[in-house]
Amino acid sequence: MHRQELLDMLARHQTRFMDESAYVRRAQTFVAAHEDCFHRDLWPAHVTGSTWVVNPDRSRVLLLHHRKHDQWFQPGGHADGDADILRVALRETSEETGLDPAHVRLVNADIFDVDIHGIPAMDHDPRHEHIDIRFLVEIDDQMPVPGNEESCQVRWTSLTAVSRFNNNRSTWRMVEKTRRMRNTLVA
């Protein structure tokens, strides 16, 4: 995959959320302007990949308590130069959940959500932004999820309780998208 493939994916991504539409436009501009957009040492921003993990009936999502940031997030991380951002997101999900990749089912290869968020200065890294490209995956919530050293806790959370763990706008947006999918499944 080359950054053109990410640009094509961003061009196809449709959203009803105005803030996400603005993120998509910013992401397109940034990726088009920076050949090295997948490298974590590119400042002031770089592309990351993550997944929104749902259970089979879309009633629960998997959240990880990130040790370094002391916050609850979906699995994801740095591309480290890999331009295949879907592969990055799936790899990070397997690593951070501690599950074999065979247990992580990609629901759709299209982008599920796009977010741009600030990361505070930490260690030797300056304050910067992550252009986070998110995909929807499914994991059986009856299976134990061991996690890894980056996460001090892993938990399945009902859609109605997600805001108790992470109430930022981008998480709310993914919950809303999941609710809409769930309503379609139930109807």
Features:
alpha+beta; three-stranded antiparallel β-sheet; about 190 residues; single chain
Can you characterise this structure?
It is a single chain. The protein has 187 residues and is an alpha+beta fold. Helices cover 30% and strands 27% of the residues. It has four helices and eight strands; from the N terminus they run ααββββαββββα. The strands form two sheets. Strands 1, 4, 5, 6 and 7 form a five-stranded mixed beta sheet that branches. It has a three-stranded antiparallel beta sheet with strand order 3-2-8, with no helix packed on it. Strand 6 (113-119) and strand 7 (128-138) form a beta hairpin. The longest helix is centred in the last third of the chain and has 18 residues, at 169-186. The protein starts with a helix and ends with a helix.
Helix content: 25-40%
Strand content: 25-35%
| Unreliable segments of 5+ consecutive residues | none
Main sheet? 5 strands, mixed
Report mean pLDDT, rounded to a whole number. Answer: 94
Briefly characterize the structure:
With 187 residues, the protein is an alpha+beta fold. It contains 4 helices and 8 strands.
Break the fold down into its secondary structure elements and pairings.
Blueprint: H1 3-12, H2 18-33, E1 45-54, E2 60-66, E3 71-73, E4 76-78, H3 85-97, E5 105-106, E6 113-119, E7 128-138, E8 151-158, H4 169-186
Parallel strand pairs: 1-7
Antiparallel strand pairs: 1-4, 2-3, 2-8, 5-7, 6-7
